[in-house]
Structures are given as structure tokens and as C-alpha cells.
Amino acid sequence: MRSFRLFLLFIILCAPLQARAGVFDAQSFTLQNGLQVVVIPNHRAPVATHMVWYRVGAADEAPGQSGVAHFLEHLMFKGSGDLAPGEFSRRVRAMAGQDNAFTSRDYTAYFQSIPVEHLQTVMRMEAQRMRGLYPPLKEVESERQVILEERMQRTENDPQARLAEEMDAALFVNHPYAKPVIGWRQEMEQLTWPQAKAFYDIWYAPNNAILVISGAVDAAQVQQWAQEIYGPLKPEIIPARNWPRVPALEARKTVTLRDDSNRQPMVQIAFRVPGFRQDKKAALALEVLADILGNGPSARLYRHLVSEQKVAVDAGISFRKESWDEGDVTLYAAPANLTPPEQVITALEMELRAIIEQGVSTDEVAQSIKRLQAQAVYARDSLAGPAMIVGQALITGASLEDVETWPQAIAAVTADDVQAAANAYLNPDHMRGRAPVVGLLPEAEGE
Amino acid sequence: MQIAAIRSFAFVLASVLLMIAPAHASEKILDIKTVTSPGGITAWLVEDHNVPVIAVEFGFRGAGTVNDPADKQGLIRLLSNTLDEGAGAMDAQAFQKELADRAISLSFGASRDHFTGALKTLRAEKDKAFELLALALTQPRFDAEAVERMRAANIARIRESLSDPDWIATRLLYASAFSGHAYARNSGGTLSGLAKITPDDLRAAHKTLLGRHALMIGVAGDITAAELAPLLDRVFGAMPVVTPPAAPAETQITGAQDIRVYDKMLPQSAIQVIQPGIKRADPAYAAAEVVNFTLGGSGFGARLMESVREKRGLSYGISSGFLHLDKADGLMISTSTKNANVAQVIDLIRQELRDVSKNPITAQELKNAQTYLTGALPLSLTSTNAIAGLLLSLQEDGLPITALEDRDAKLRALSLQDVNAMAARLLRPDDLRIVVVGQPRDLKNATVVKDLPDVE
To answer: In CATH terms, are B33-236 and B252-449 the same topology?
Structure first.
């Protein structure tokens, strides 16, 4: 449940969002070399968050090199420009700042949050490592051990994470999303610097990146600095993403992970659904649907399965909508003591059937829209949060306009839209090439 | 979003609390006011009208999980889970729907020492939000249905945690470091203890522990002092005055090289280390903050991180941090490594702790720590609830309203001699208590533990 909750939080946090002129009143411009720059003014404290997003992630890796996008992300801290290995983060810390980076299926991002007077300095450091990376060999060797430790800590030591990994493999058949972002162990063990370097040379370029700056900054000033610091970087020819598609799948699969020490069973059912880039209208309707079904203790799943039927002790939903290609909607529950997991899966499916057959009420939709719009206001109550939301939306194919006008777009969703989306994409009885994957993490036997 | 791989977790988590702003000597870091209601309830307030959001974080001093009876561990946690499950005329469903429909978030929690609550609302829903909070605090229902549901959720949480090596390590560490003291118990409850708790137990705990005289309140966001004062009375004014429960005795953490191993079939072991710490109120606390930052508090650049991850690739992360309880203080180090490397990593931890006497903290390290510890506070104060949370934590630690400025001044005044004297005083390489969960190889002098205390 812990991991599911975290996931939900991100979904809520990342719902792009509400009305003043726009949610964030961000400004955007593009340099001649193709680098898009977005500035989100926030004068609450004399600080800024500086993020560079690359439109490349684990899904762009060559076969057999899973994990190389993330390995490269680690190596980006191991010597660039005039900075020695490890110096990047130490330098940021010495200016009272924080830095980190993350890799997803679709993108890789690097960020620093700093007192605003150091903004130009971190811009220079980041611009230098967009083209000038040279980690020494011994750093490459030890960092490979670090990513293997990371895989153990985040995946191999956690039964829920292991189940999630294998559910993706079953849901995204023939598609690069079938691979874990961190990589398959046996391929990670063989990753080399030449592979990481080749990946870097192909994809890391100003015309394949978005720069997002939020904080106590002036857009005109940022534009001048961005031009001076990032402007000289040469654009490259970026390959098109020609990912293979998931074929029509009619067989419902059940993925069962038995872990000898697992004491609390968990069940899930995952459906492949369009993201914002594939079908904006459907994605917005699914967003309202996910809220009606899964947003907290008064939503349908918790109310019906946990409070009324008592077949589960927790229930909810996650919707990975901000992805370049199709995402997924996953309903999950923790079965109550002595309730067979299959019965809980059936109860989750009944909730979908109820919506497909009877729809949702206009009241439910209105309340949901109100809640989602409130999330847009809460989203502004942060420094790095808005930069995350805008960066993630833009790098996965949405426009700034989409982000700024999201509250109006979500307000246009109707009860009919919700029912139609459920029928088309979350139908447990009519697969339409989108057969769901059921995930089971049973209680260990003999407990 | 699928951030499946992040470069470093530990640092982000470790840096959430208590860092400070670049203030000129006399300038205020945060404009904190005290607001006292007509009825005599006092809150600390930071007004901030940038975003139409209000956050309230409050605590009842001494009402934490130390009050759990030994055979009903989980009582206070369950109280925190059921307080928002129906109040006044509203049952759990009605109450939760009211919160959800107005996008108000309300939650309660409990640390070992204190019982806490957090409210976040849009300004437009302020009156309703405070009304719902007042209802939860003064007229909770503890309906049998809600109590059963929350009991089941807690039992499931514990059972799920049994798959988490860090959770198991933490459980063992508290059980051994505080053996014989109330702090040794499981603050989240035991399976058998939770099974015994009745709605009447919850009613009694609510009545005897949560009183207005034990209150600590932090408020931040889009609200003025004049607006807040009457609301304080409406929320907390009807609460009773209670006799504070007897506080537990002061206790010392001892280590004496105790290494415990809990065998669990995992590729990687979780390692947690604790040694005696230092009180927040200690006049030399600022020097201790610099020692911790240099040793393992700063993420990249810290001696432990450089030695274990950056030089040798032995772990995804290693960090150190202080544990502050009302009656005990510790310095903790946590990390993980594959089973074959556990002995080496533990040796490296000892070595780094010893090394400070031979390789004292340098002028550069002191400067970096001072810059960060005084400069990074604004980064953690960019959301309304983070500010309210800081106001509460200052009060929990019994610090004055000038605590941020005081700390800033002390950090700036530190000399190399101050911080190295503190390193000699604080660090105990020969007095570590260590817990390993996994299947470590070649680990000498370890005691194998079969049972997890206070879980079943």
C-alpha cells in the first residue's frame, strides 16, 4: 500500500491545473538552437528551481541495454565541463542548494533548487554537461555497482515492486514500456561507458530538451541568461521515436508473485489506456473517472469494498496518464483477512461494470471536477512542484496551453464521457484488444 | 508519474526539516507572530497571502504512543486513525465526504511523545474546515464500524511492513536501544494489542490525554491574526483541561558494539546504526549539526557517502541524522548493501567515525556546512504546510520563537575548534548499536535474532 499511496500522491500532484489567467501564468520561448524555455514566476522566497528535461528515457534504449538511460543519468554527475567526478553535487550543496535527477520511461530530468542568486551558476554547470561529459573509467565501474544496489533496494527487496515490474512486462507486450526503467539485472551488469556515451551523443541536445525555471525570477532576465548560456549549444539531428506498438491482446493474464515471507495479500487489475497525447478527451474523462472511483475514503472503491462489503482493508486506483505513449489505469486493493483474492478482483470488476452499465451521476462528476480544480490551486503552493508538473506535461507531448487551461478542460467532462471512457477502455468483459492484466501477491502459505 | 529511478533518495528526505535562511544578523528569517485568542489559546502564525491556502499543524504534548498500555500497543495510533472517522451527527462516510467535497485535508498522527494533527484548506472553505476540525476533536464518535475498519487497516499495515527490511531494522533498533523503556515499544501497535482495543478504550484515551493545556499550534498561509484568534477558540476552546500523563523517565542509548542480525532471505541487507546523541537544547547543538552534516547529513559530499558510495560503489545511499525524543537522543546512520559487503560497510562506518580524530573537520568542510545549514532553509519553506510544520516542530522541541535566528547566529559563530571538540564529544565508534536485516556474510560477533519484539 505504501508504494501505491506514493504513486497516487504523484498523480494528484502532477495533475496539471486552475484559473487565474492560467494555472501557473508561465511564460515560454524557444532559443534558435531549439531549446524550449519555460519560466514560472514565484516570488514567495528568494529561491529558484532549475530543471532540464530531456525527451529520452528507458523506452528509447537499444535492445539488450535496458537501464542505460538511468545509468547515464548517474554518470552525468561523474565529471563534466570543468567539474571533477562528484563535484557537481558538492558545488550545489556549497551554495546552499539541493540537486537530484530522475529517469522515467519517456524522459530524463536534472534539477537544482538554490538561493536565486546562484541561478546563473547552475545554468552554466548544467549547460556544460549537456555536451561535455567524461567520467573516468573507475567511476563508471563503481557506479555500475551503485545502480545494482539501487535495483536491490527499490525492486528486488520489495515484493510489490517486483510484481509491478512483471505486470508492466505483461501489459505492454512488444512495446519498450515492458522493460523496467532501472533495467533487467543481467543487462545492467553488462552496461558499458561506450553504450552510455552513444546514448548521450544521440539524445542529449538543446533541441531535444526543455528548460524549466520556477522561483523568484524575471522572465526577461532569464531569457537573456538562457540565450547567453544555453544559446551556443549546437542542435543535433534527433531520431524519430518509432516504438513498436502493443498488438491487440484478447487473453486476460494473471501475474502471480509468490513471496515466501509475504503476510499481507494485494491484488490489482491493470488496463492499457490512452494518455493525453493519444486522446485528450478520453484522458480527461479517465481522470474524472479515477477520481470518482479512487480518490480517498469517500470514493466508490473504498466506500463499497472497504466500508460496505468489507472484502478489502484498502482500495484505490492509479492512472499513469502523462506518458508519451499509452499509459495504464490500475485498480488495487488489499484483501481483508480470509477473503480470497479472486473475490476482491471480482468486486473491483463489479465497480467497473456498474459504471459501464449505469454510468455516474452528474453530481458525482460535478463534485469530482471541483476537487480536481482545487488540486490546481494546491499545486501552486510549492516551488519545485509547478516545475515538475509543467516539465512532465511538456516533455510527454502536451502544450503549455494544455497545462494552463486544464481546469477549464476538466470542467467540460460530462457523465456520458466518463461512462464512454469506462466502456471503451476499462471493460472487463469486452477486451477490444486491451485485455487487462490481473496481479496477485498472495499471502505466503503456512502463515 | 513513473519516476522509477531517482539518483538519491536519502538526501531529499533528510533535508526536509530545520535548515535555515541567509539572514543578516538582525533580520528575521521567518516573520512568526504569536496569536492568543480571547479564550487564552495561543498559536504561532506566519501570514502568507501568496496562495489562497491555509495550513494548521498542532500537537498535544505528552499525548503520544508512550501512553499505550503494554498489552494494548496501538491504542494511540488507532485513536489518531479514528478521530476523523465520524463526529457529531455525521458518521464516517458523511464526515469524509464533507472533507473530500470541499477539498479539505485533515489527518491525525502520533509520535512517541506527542499526538498531532494537520489541517489544510483553501481559504474559501476556511470556516467549514475549522468547524470539521473542532467536531473531530470534541465530538468524535468511535462507531464500532469505523473502529473495526481502522483496526483491520492497521493490522494489514503491520503485516505489509513485515516485507520491508528497513521497517524491520527500525523495529529491532528501537526494541534493543530502549530495552525496558516505553520507547522500546511499537508505536504503530502490535497485532495482539490492536485486537484488544475497544471503542471505550479510545473514548477514555481521548478524554484523558487530549486537553487544551497541552496544545502546541502552528498556522501558516492566507489568514490574518485577527481572523485566526476567534477560530482558535471555536476549534480548541471547548476542549477540556486534563492532567498531563506522567512522562517517561530520561533514558540513555548504549551500544557497546551490539550487533544483531535478523535473518531474512533478501539479496541486500538493510543496516541501521545508533549511538548516543545530543539534546536540541544543548548550548553546543549548532556544532553537533555541523558534525552530522560533515559525517553523513549532507548526502553527496558527506564523508560517509564519499567513502561508501562514491569511492567504492557499495551502496545506493548512506546517511546520518539525529533522533530527538523528549527523553532520549540518538545519532543514527542507515544504509543498505548486498549481503557480501555488510562487514566491509560496517567497518567503513566505524572507520569514518574514528577518523575524525586523525583527520579533523577542515576549514572548507566547516564553511560548506555553515553555508548550507544557514542558507537552505527557504527551500524547505516554500509550501504552506511545510511552514506550519516547522512552527509546530519548534514548539515540540521547546524552543523559543527566536529559535531560527538564534540558530543562525550560533552556526555563523562556530570555530574549527568548536566543531572538532564536538566531534570528539559526540562520536562513539566503540559504542555503536547495529541492526542488520538480510543474510550478511562473514559478520563477526553478531547475535542472531529470531523474534521481532512487539509485532505479534
So the answer is: yes
Mean pLDDT of A273-291: 96
B4 neighbourhood in chain A, CB within 8 Å:
58, 70, 103-105, 154, 180-182
ipTM: 0.92
The CATH topology of domain A23-229 is: Cytochrome Bc1 Complex; Chain A, domain 1 (3.30.830)
Q: How far apart are CA B10 and CA B14, in angstroms?
A: 6
pLDDT in tens, B140-150: 999 999 999 99
Helix or strand (DSSP H, E) at B406: helix B403-413
Mark yes or no for CB contact A261/B264 under 8 Å.
yes
CATH code of the domain made up of A253-441:
3.30.830.10
What is the rounded CA–CA span in Å between residue A119 and residue B379?
Answer: 14
- Asked whether A28 and A36 are in contact (CB, 8 A), the reply is yes
The grid cell for B364 is 572548507
Active site residue A187: no
Question: Does position A10 have pLDDT exceeding 60, yes or no?
Answer: no
**pLDDT tens digits, B150-175:** 999 999 999 999 999 999 999 999 99
Look-up of cell digits 525570477: A217
Strand, helix or coil for residue B207? helix
Average pLDDT score over residue span A163-168: 97
**Distance separating alpha carbons of residues B272 and B443, to the nearest angstrom:** 15
Residue tagged active-site, from A73, A143, A287, A351: A73
For chain B, give every domain's residue range.
Answer: 33-236, 252-449
* Mean pLDDT across chain A: 93
Q: State how far the Cα of A308 lies from the Cα of A364, in Å rounded to an integer.
A: 19
Nearest CA in chain A to B309: A146
At the top level of CATH, which class does the domain B33-236 belong to? alpha beta
pLDDT at B18: 31
* Locus of grid cell 519516476: B3
Q: Which CATH architecture has domain B252-449?
A: 2-Layer Sandwich (3.30)
Res B7: pLDDT: 52
Nearest to residue A277, comparing CAs of A414, A399, A423?
A399
Q: Decide if B13 touches A, using CB distance below 8 A.
A: no
Residues in A closer than 8 angstroms to B306, CB to CB, are 86
Kindly list the residues from chain A whose CB atom is less than 8 angstroms away from the CB atom of residue B15. Answer: 98
For chain A, the structural domain boundaries read 23-229, 253-441
Q: How far is B297 from chain A (nearest CA, A)?
A: 11
